[in-house]
Q: What sequence folds into this?
């Protein structure tokens, strides 16, 4: 009887979400893999018989495409500078916020979280104004210190750094909350024991707090790295990849090939290279983590 | 003893001072946005800039609705937000189904949900566009809404929460003759209120901020969302920073107000979901 009762209902509960997920997440992965071996473009969209299989041609072409190689270089630039900055900043702020529980600390928690829930276009509009070479607040403040105007978004390397500053500002919130949740999970008795043994503040930080945050740090590192390897919104809304492709990222390259030039097959191949890179980096991190705990 | 409390008091002041300095730096863009949005067009370009507007005006906000179609954008955004709540219900149902029923293929479906969480958005973006195109759904509201309804991460969080609800409770309701859907709506949802609160806020924020997909799918201005409209405004009124700031404030302030009311649930939610 119970078997019979349980037969139909679970499927009714999961059906809507699972069908949608299949249609818009599972099938697209297969479609992407298939079209990455074809020359599908706008012509192929109108007339399917115009699509032909070209094997690994797209993948080969990508590695000789100067723009793609530049986008890989830029993405590494973003990841190598941005990820450590986000982690250090969010951990430091979480440690400060964990110091007390009064309303001041709650208010600041909200203040630091705010950028991460702010709409990316609003962010682009606000920061575009702040970064403006002539009328921007940043250059005005620097001019008070008699520093010359900085071309925040007009010079390739400075533009990359400007985007990193913006992305760090936006990325602190969520990681800070994860660190804060982990900090609040550390039993008070550990600190009391350390205090009785006469440990200094720094000793407590380095020998108790940070080791106990190991799992949170690992989680934050993995998710932040995955997120930054897909760096997209900031260059998309602020610079559109310019100047001179100086800020283009892999994800933005894929978007432009797919939706600006309608080279669907080529873009799909690019997306699989990005996916492969993400998997390699993530697996590598898990391997490192394992080694760390073995020791 | 006295010196110890004195030291910790000084320490606390130092922590608060650091938080204030950092807080001012972090909120500077917001403060600048609010201040500039009330400036008339000529004052916003003045050098040196005024910190508080000399001649405050709300003209910029009125212009959003008279010179731009912000009424239409607002309506579209609200439609998207409402439907994303329907999606939230679907996700909750799926989470409940995966957590509380034994059925064939359960493990496999759960792993499938987990696997889709790891796929980068760039991989599925183009195929989803092609699929919607073959269904004739590009440039329609349905095409904007459908792909965003089911969210793997949300299903996962609901499942994690609902697995902690005792089976006996559900069995007892069944013995009393309650139907499965009655149990879900009248028993499970009230118990799962905290997770609904978190997911509700996150869903609202995601719907309100939705930008890239509407931009890809919508060709007609009548389908634009607030974000797409704001980026249009940025292109059309490139040097009218006051109007741009008013548009940005119109998007950001509602989110901040909602967040300020519900922020404690978000922290609790992360503690609850066991990611720590």
A:
């Amino acid at each position: 009887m119970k078997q019979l009762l349980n037969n139909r209902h679970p499927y009714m509960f999961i059906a809507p979400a699972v069908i949608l997920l299949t249609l818009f997440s599972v099938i697209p992965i297969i479609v992407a893999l298939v079209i990455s071996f074809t020359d599908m473009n706008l012509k192929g969209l109108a007339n399917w018989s115009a699509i032909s299989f070209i094997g690994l041609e797209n993948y080969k072409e990508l590695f000789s495409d100067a723009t793609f190689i530049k986008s890989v270089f830029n993405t590494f630039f973003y990841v190598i500078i941005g990820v450590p900055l986000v982690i250090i900043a969010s951990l430091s702020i979480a440690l400060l916020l964990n110091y007390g529980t009064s309303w001041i600390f709650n208010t600041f928690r909200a203040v630091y979280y705010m950028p991460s829930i702010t709409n990316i276009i609003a962010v682009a509009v606000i920061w575009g104004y702040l970064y403006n070479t002539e009328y921007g607040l940043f250059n005005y403040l620097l001019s008070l210190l008699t520093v010359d105007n900085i071309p925040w978004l007009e010079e390739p390397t400075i533009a990359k750094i400007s985007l990193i500053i913006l992305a760090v500002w936006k990325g602190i919130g969520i990681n800070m909350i994860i660190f804060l949740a982990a900090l609040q999970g550390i039993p008070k008795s550990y600190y009391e024991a350390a205090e009785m043994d006469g440990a200094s503040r720094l000793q407590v930080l380095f020998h108790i707090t940070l080791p106990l945050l190991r799992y949170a740090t690992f989680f934050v590192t993995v998710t932040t790295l995955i997120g930054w390897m897909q760096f997209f919104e900031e260059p998309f809304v602020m610079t559109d990849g310019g100047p001179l492709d100086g800020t283009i990222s892999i994800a933005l390259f894929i978007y432009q090939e797919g939706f600006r030039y309608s080279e669907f097959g080529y873009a799909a191949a690019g997306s699989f290279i990005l996916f492969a890179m993400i998997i390699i980096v993530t697996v590598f991190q898990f391997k490192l983590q394992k080694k760390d705990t073995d020791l | 003893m006295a010196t110890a409390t004195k030291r910790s008091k000084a320490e606390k002041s130092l922590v608060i001072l650091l938080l204030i300095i950092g807080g001012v730096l972090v909120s500077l863009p917001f403060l600048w946005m609010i201040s500039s949005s009330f400036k008339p067009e000529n004052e916003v370009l003045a050098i040196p800039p005024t910190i508080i507007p000399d001649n405050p005006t709300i003209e910029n906000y009125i212009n959003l609705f008279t010179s731009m179609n912000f009424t239409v954008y607002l309506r579209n955004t609200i439609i998207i937000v409402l439907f994303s709540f329907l999606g939230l219900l679907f996700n909750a149902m799926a989470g409940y189904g995966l957590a509380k029923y034994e059925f064939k293929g359960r493990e496999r479906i759960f792993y499938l949900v987990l696997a889709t969480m790891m796929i980068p958005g760039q991989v599925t973006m183009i195929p989803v566009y092609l699929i919607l195109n073959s269904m004739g759904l590009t440039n329609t509201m349905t095409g904007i809404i459908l792909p965003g309804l089911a969210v793997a991460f949300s299903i996962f969080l609901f499942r994690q929460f609902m697995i902690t609800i005792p089976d006996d409770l559900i069995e007892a309701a069944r013995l009393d003759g309650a139907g499965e859907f009655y149990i879900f709506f009248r028993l499970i949802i009230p118990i799962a209120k905290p997770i609904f609160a978190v997911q509700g806020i996150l869903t609202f924020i995601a719907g309100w901020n939705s930008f890239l997909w509407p931009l890809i799918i919508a060709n007609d201005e009548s389908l634009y969302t607030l974000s797409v409209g704001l980026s249009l405004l940025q292109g059309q009124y490139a040097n009218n920073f006051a109007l741009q700031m008013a548009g940005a404030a119109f998007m950001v302030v509602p989110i901040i107000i909602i967040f300020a009311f519900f922020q404690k649930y978000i922290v609790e939610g992360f503690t609850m979901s066991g990611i720590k």
Q: What stands out?
A: Chain B touches chain A through 92 residues (CB under 8 Å). Chain B is about 75% helix and 0% strand.
